[in-house]
Design a protein that fits this description.
Number of helices of chain A: 24
Helix content of chain A: 40-55%
Oligomer: homodimer
Strand content of chain A: 15-25%
Largest interface: A-B, 73 and 74 residues
Shape of chain A: globular
Strand order of the largest sheet of chain A: 3-10-11-21-16-15-14-12-13
Radius of gyration of chain A: 33 Å
CATH architecture of one domain in chain A: 3-Layer(aba) Sandwich
CATH class of one domain in chain A: Alpha Beta
Structural class of chain A: alpha+beta
Number of strands of chain A: 28
């Protein structure tokens, strides 16, 4: 808890006691029929105490709602204005609206769809093409076995509670979070200790078990928000949309919760396609699905969304990156683990320093953090409202080496929009092992028993890479050689199981057995496929370390995964681009999106100043040259006033407008500055194209061409 | 049946009888111990009969397998070669292969994914941008109510039969089709009548009811293909993947079977976005899902696929198209209904003639047929293996005005790749009516009974358009005015139902009632919500025609829907682009895809002729200028022979290769002609770009630049 808030809570509690005590004193004076001046003086003292209390309340209110007391309110009003414009102009709308919609599903209308296409095209340019990534396109429908291996079937859950009377479902952590936030922000009477406790709950929310969450909900007396009915205990709800593949009803499947698995299962083919060379990256853009318990926050938490994911496969012993030097000097807001733990805030750090100090685990992870920073800021995300936050130890999966989220601040707070994780070898191993187990389970075991039963590191398991040595190297290798004859005599039909279990021992287990056999001559050995211990004698197995020449090193590559929530990025981009300015007459606020040309749904509009055939013909000529130049644009020949037409395109974030007001020269107006230049009809399209393609800036154009003298038409 | 086939079957049957009769004669001669010369002469006659029979058999075999007797066999071999290359180079591969895959699901690997991106980008350019369509992006997860309205929940089914012992499922029509085809092609002994019957079954397959299909399966003794077990009766299986939206389990949903519904439900907003003007088109690219009973034919019948759909909304009274003149002179293979019925084949028709003769229902439909032709042929589809086939009356939905399929011929036969249908007002009406019914069902009825109960044409139902008249027009309108007081007295609590039923009468019904009431004073009237007839007297309702001034005409727009199966188009494109040619040494066949640059996954490769720093530096300079020019390319610095490197890129369909064999000039080689020109290092990228962008042809380049003198490196 911030020091000021804590001391304010204490001061408020003291002042409250003082007010109560003084109130009693006044009442006592009145009861004792004290003199009027005496009573008046006491009342005046009481009032000044109340004033002091109210002042502390105000300060506390300001402290809990952020830097300014009206912050939450103005954020809300800003969002309302932006969302109204977005929905009215069909950037996005709730899906199936005529059927009263479905929570968590949205349609992108024409301008939103164009923005999304532009964002995805730039993503493909910035990542896939510039980095020579292998792009793939896999189905959304996924059989259960794949998501069992990845862990999603067992663990991709949120804790849910039900209204015990109506059956309405809620996310348990959301209810607890809302309760704590509301208490902290609206109830100024809670003690500093209570406030600290609630803040601790908020900080550890993601770690709470079902039991702990349930206990807190009971302790705080939280009920169903809509009905105030009691709630059930929390229980896990799997967030995948389930379905059934094929007509038999016997093949369960799910709509993929992420696109990554499609890449992992293809690792072997992609590695081969890349000439059996590491590192390389595969990428995929596609739909993913999460059956959220109670979607909220518009585009930020939805049930279907577009993900763009990169899986960069790298030798775990060499996580350098050839292009690291290109990002090393970038400086931006980073929020390392330690700063979060010690209550500091994000600060500007040079990426190279974060990597060299070990704050960021390795060069490749650092490289992608830098590339994500460039990607987001080029789209138009405000760099001062973008930070890279490192996962705390308790947030990170046990196998992950390091993980950073690109968080963007919007009216809902800091939102995770890109996750950049070094997931080590987890995903490929999960599929290798599960794959083997799966093949094994389905009775293909006898044909290649050597392959399947043995230690995975030794076998030809699919999802691995190999580093060929230029000349063979001598290595010490553990060799476990079961003596089949002896084992057969001792265990008969179970011989196979015992052999497999012996071969599956890791180095430590094997060396312990070797030592025990040498000292005692016999050990008890657990065979999991038999479910019991068996006695192993010295003559049944030979365990030794042998020197071997090896020609290659076989290993499971590490995966570094930047994963982009495209809808979240787009929503934050909408908010960062939105502003209002007064109309010419000053009687209303006009809405503008300051999209960079890269993102803008349309790059240019063409307006004949008045409805007249000559001007319309010129507009058509310009339109044709814009088409040839590949600039998306629109002609507006309605007779509406030019100011209204500007306002209409500003609301769509169109950066340039060409007004046809003569047959020789036309006016080009820039959206944000509202500045206008005069350009010949022949040049118009090329001027727009050069700025749109980033070959020159609007300032260059402003320098070069004559300015429109009669002032801007809309201002 | 083709005349020649029929007469051949008859001739074969006659010859067979002759052979049998003559065989008997020979045996009789032998039994009668006739003289050797006599027997020998008889045997010789028999042998020549057998020869004649065998010749007829060959002719018949040729007739049933197409133009050449080895057609099926060579098609199969061609496909095998193409698919081997496609899968080996990861154009596409079965999904989840390491888990032994799932039928009907495929991944696009890197080159396939690039081809798909290129096809979609061109689609967007050719249709969305050039026609100013409103593109939208809606979710795949769709609530049941939407697909109930569209008819998919009730009718989107295939007939299925089960192996009665193993439970394995088969598509009933596929089994019957396979049986008939096999019989026709392999059993030459069946009579001409039997053959005609089997052909009739094939022709009417799509129309057979479950009962008729079941009867045929029984009649022909068709059993399960894998086990020969008996089969169940056919029953409908819904092809949508079902799921459940939200945690309650109470909101059924489906993965959309097409993208069109997302557009229809947004009609009102899109119409408004378009300034309340018709015609306009909306478009959507996205995944669609069909849980096929038994997917086969690779990419052609899959369970998840990318659709690109256009819904062009038009005034049903004016289906002209402003850009129709741009396609009117196109000439290509068309296959009108009448030619199909009379056993002719597709023929070249000028599009303008087909429209003016009424073969194609209207200009807008014709315009889209022309645009689809241009789209497909520019992608690289062979125009001689592309035809537009009109639906037969029995294929078409009852509401459709006309429907044409763009069919592409590949090794599997003629495949429907694009459907272009005039669906009249069906889809918008379905949602309007269901929407109303839905609101009605859920108890919102009392508030606006006038709106809901009344004739839909009269009410403010959402999904309509309006044509504003420049001045009001006088129209005659039917007015049905139930006299509520009299109806209330007569029917008490059922009054509402009777009022609604009266108001819902169409013009014909109302005028008939009016006449009957005037002549008889009372009529029996069926009220469907009561499920019975009620007596209506003259004083209970007034029916009249009144003249009214109207300011606008309100109508449900017609929808013209071109719907593209992107995966099918891509597969056919793969086949049309694939060919083999002998290697330089002549010892093997090399594979080539002749993709046009527009489609090619990579436009250019850059090869240093030998491994040397100077050449690699030049390669990097060229690579940089290619990047600046926006040309996707790859450098191959492996030391492999140049011929092998060419073969490798030919297999990916890369149109150009730049070989660096000096530091001043380089060689550019064109894939299909294998011709090579010498170009300076500075010009290389621009030459490739100009051909790739279609600004000049390879022939122009060949004219202008010096030819590589030492002959082509790979030939």
């Amino acid at each position: 808890m911030a020091a000021s808030e804590e001391s304010l809570r204490k001061a408020l509690a003291e002042k409250q006691s003082a007010v109560e005590a003084h109130g009693n004193a006044v009442r006592a004076l009145k009861a004792a029929k004290a003199s009027k001046p005496e009573i008046d003086a006491a009342i005046e003292a009481l009032n000044s105490l109340k004033l002091e209390k109210s002042s502390i309340e105000k300060q506390l209110q300001a402290a809990v709602s952020g830097s300014d007391g009206d912050g939450a309110l103005s954020r809300e009003a800003f969002r309302q204005a932006a969302v109204n414009t977005l929905e009215r102009r069909l950037f996005y709308i709730p899906s199936f609206k005529i059927y009263r919609g479905v929570a968590g599903l949205y349609d992108y209308g024409p301008p939103g769809c164009a923005v999304k296409s532009n964002v995805l095209a730039f993503w493909r340019q910035h990542f896939v093409l510039e980095e020579n990534m292998l792009e793939v396109d896999c189905p959304c429908v996924t059989p259960e076995v794949v998501l069992k291996a990845s862990g999603h079937v067992d663990k991709f859950t949120d804790l849910m509670v039900k209204d015990e009377k109506t059956g309405t479902c809620y996310r348990a952590d959301h209810l607890l979070k809302d309760f704590c936030n509301e208490k902290l922000q609206k109830d100024l009477t809670i003690s500093a200790e209570k406030a600290a406790e609630l803040k601790h709950v908020l900080a550890t929310l993601d770690d709470l078990s079902a039991e702990a969450l349930g206990a807190k909900i009971k302790e705080y007396g939280i009920t169903a928000p809509d009905t105030k009915n009691p709630l059930s205990d929390p229980y896990p709800f799997n967030l995948m949309f389930q379905t059934s593949i094929g007509p038999s009803g016997l093949s369960p499947g799910y709509m993929r919760p992420e696109t990554a698995q499609g890449i992992f299962v293809n690792f072997k083919d992609l590695y081969y396609y890349n000439g059996n060379k590491l590192p390389f990256a595969a990428a995929q853009i596609g739909q993913a699905f999460r059956n959220e318990i109670s979607p909220r926050q518009g585009l930020l938490r939805v049930r279907e969304f577009t993900l763009a994911e990169i899986e960069h496969f790298v030798d775990p012993e060499d996580k350098s990156h050839p292009k690291y030097s290109e990002v090393v000097d970038l400086e931006f807001l980073m929020f390392p683990r330690e700063e979060q733990m010690s209550g500091q805030s994000a600060k500007k750090i040079r990426l190279g320093d974060a990597v060299s100090k070990g704050t960021v685990n390795n060069e490749t992870l650092g490289y992608f953090i830098g590339r994500v920073y460039l990607f987001l800021t080029r789209l138009g995300i405000d760099k001062d409202r973008l930070r890279f936050r490192q996962h705390l130890a308790n947030e990170m999966a046990h196998y992950a080496a390091d993980c950073w989220d690109a968080e963007i601040e919007c009216s809902y707070g800091w939102i995770e929009c890109v996750g950049i994780a070094d997931r080590s070898a987890y995903d490929l191993r999960a599929h290798s092992e599960h794959h083997v187990k799966n093949v094994f389970d389905e009775g293909q075991r006898d044909g290649n028993i050597d392959f399947i039963g043995t230690n995975l590191d030794k076998s030809g398991v699919p999802l691995v890479a190999a580093e060929k040595f230029s000349e063979p190297r001598e290595v010490e290798k553990l060799v476990i050689a079961p003596v089949k004859k002896e084992l057969g005599l001792a265990f008969k039909g179970s011989q196979k199981n015992v052999v497999e279990a012996l071969e599956a021992m890791n180095e430590k287990e094997a060396l312990e057995m070797k030592a025990a056999l040498e000292s005692k001559g016999e050990v008890e050995f657990y065979v999991c496929t038999l479910g019991k211990n068996v006695p192993i004698k010295k003559n049944m197995v030979s365990i030794s370390k042998e020197k071997k020449k090896e020609h290659q090193r076989v290993f499971t590559p590490s995966v570094i995964e930047p994963s982009f929530g495209i809808g979240r990025i787009i929503y934050c981009l909408f908010e960062h681009s939105f502003y209002t300015r007064p109309s010419k007459a000053g009687d209303e606020q006009l809405n503008v999106f300051r999209f960079p040309p890269l993102v803008a749904p349309i790059k240019c509009t063409v307006f004949p100043l008045v409805q007249n055939q000559q001007y319309e013909d010129v507009a058509k000529v310009i339109s044709k040259s814009l088409t040839t130049a590949g600039i998306s644009h629109k002609i507006d020949i309605t007779g509406t006033s030019i100011g209204k037409r500007y306002a209409r395109t500003d609301e769509l974030g169109v950066p340039f407008a060409i007004t046809v007001d003569s047959t020789k020269d036309v006016t080009i107006r820039e959206r944000d500055s509202k500045l206008q230049v005069r350009v010949s009809v022949e040049e118009a399209a090329l001027v727009v194209k050069s700025v749109t393609d980033g070959l020159r800036t609007w300032e260059d154009v402003w320098e070069k061409y004559p300015h429109h003298t009669s002032g801007s038409a809309d201002d």
